[in-house]
Write a structure and sequence with these properties.
By secondary structure, the protein is mainly α. It has one domain: Magnesium transport protein CorA, transmembrane region (Methane Monooxygenase Hydroxylase, Chain G, domain 1), CATH 1.20.58. It contains 4 helices and no strands. α2 packs antiparallel against α3 and α3 packs antiparallel against α4. The longest helix is centred in the middle third of the chain and has 48 residues. The mean pLDDT is 84.
Length: 141
């Protein structure tokens, strides 16, 4: 193997190490496009040099990095969706209460009564606190 091939392999090895460190440090400067660009260059090198086995090891490391990055992104998205679901669950009953107390009917109990507003306020606060405690108890956030 000539010196040019060894330099190229060493370059790829350095890039893989940089990407690995960036991913491990929660990638503040990690760019997903760098990952795919390096992988593309490695695959092109593999096509030009099919007998070079050292590139296969680096390609498998790149696949592992890609998988780890995708897994991390999926976990972050799941956490965000979990939080969105919790907020939606809290506000759904509140929307129902608002719709119920906002109707223009005199026959619905508590709408025209003297204590209707306070019952509405108490029910709203009870619902928010109750759901918050339930979610905390089950460690949903």
């Amino acid at each position: 193997m000539d010196n040019g091939h060894m330099e190229k392999i060493e370059f790829f090895n350095q890039k893989v190490t940089e990407l690995e460190k960036g991913l491990e440090s929660n990638y503040p400067n990690f760019d997903e496009m760098d990952l795919y660009q390096v992988k593309k260059e490695m695959l092109l090198y593999k096509l030009e040099n099919p007998k070079d086995t050292k590139i296969d090891i680096l390609l498998s490391l790149m696949d592992n990095l890609d998988t780890a990055f995708d897994k991390d992104q999926t976990e972050k998205m799941n956490r965000k969706l979990n939080l969105l679901t919790i907020w939606s669950t809290i506000f759904l009953p509140l929307s129902f209460y608002t719709g119920m107390w906002g109707m223009n009917f005199d026959d619905v109990p508590l709408l025209t009564g003297d204590h209707g507003f306070w019952v509405f306020l108490g029910l709203t606060i009870f619902t928010i606190v109750g759901m918050f405690l339930y979610f905390k108890k089950h460690r949903w956030f």
